[in-house]
Amino acid sequence: MLLTLIGLVALPVAALTTIGTRDRRALSLGIPAGLIALLWLALPGALPDQVIRSAALIAAVAFAITTLFTRWSVTHRGLLSVVTATMGVTGAFAVFGWSWDRLHWWVAHQAAITLRFVLSGLWNVARLQGDGQVSGPSATMLSRFESGYVRTVANLFPALSALQMLIGMGVGAAIYYRLAGHPVGRMPGRFSTFRFSEHVGWAAVIPLAILLLPTLDAVKLLAWNLLAVTGAMYALRGAAVVAFAGQLWGGPVLYVLGAAALFLLLPFVPAGALLLGVLDSGLDLRRRWTAPRA
């Protein structure tokens, strides 16, 4: 997992320094990033690994090209690159004879192995009582959790991969603009200013409509993946609104109260961030808060 995240960051850095600029500082950054990316791409792996590496390579090249020829924000360049990678991987499925069922099985298999490894100690404690017998309720609860987790990870593999690539391109762009001598393209802004075009909302409206209609079962899994990506984007926007409010009215007391609320209301934080992101999309809260009063 860690090596995958490193590769997802190294690929866009290498692509940006190769396509975007070739000064000495960029080369000193791009050469090690390129070596790490090549090492990651050359590693053996199962079908899910090959799929995400192929998608990441296409996305990194598309990200570098859009950086060179457009003035779009890092967010919009990343989204376009993910769409391009999705189209490229779809073509690879047709060319190489890959199938969704096979990919789904591999992802579920890897997720089950990882979960059992991470929770092995907890699993053994929950399943065994003092007399060494298996605890029925505990075993049933953990078994249901495992099956639900594995099924969710397998079903949402495209969305999780897309979010990982977006994070990799965002971190890679931040490294590139900080360390390259003469970077090209529009620099990323502060996290508190994070936003995206309102047209992205259609990527949430259409999947919701598909999920509510009873006759489109064949594409509901695709709708869930689109909804997961857009939901994460809006939740991130909501977190940016909170960060902006902290900068605007911030102080030590506010940060302490915010940390306490985050700890106490942790299960509701993602939903709250999502709701706040949707509200900001419609009301532009940050502009309202800083606009001069009449």
Describe what is shown at a glance:
This protein has 13 helices and no strands. It is mainly α and 294 residues long. The chain has a domain at 190-294.
Describe this structure in words.
About 80% of the residues lie in helices and about 0% in strands. It is an all-alpha fold. It has a domain at about 190-294. It is globular and about 60 Å long. It starts with a helix and ends with a helix. Mean pLDDT is about 85; it is low at about 130-135.
Give the count of helical stretches.
Answer: 13
Order of helices and strands: HHHHHHHHHHHHH
- Our Rg estimate from Cα atoms comes to 22 Å
Largest sheet: none
Helix and strand composition category: mainly alpha
Shape: globular
- List how many beta strands DSSP finds: 0
Calculate the mean pLDDT score and round it: 84
- The percent of residues in helical segments reads over 70%
Spatial gap, N to C terminus? 53 Å
Strand content: under 5%
Q: Which spans of ≥5 residues are poorly predicted at pLDDT below 50?
A: 128-134
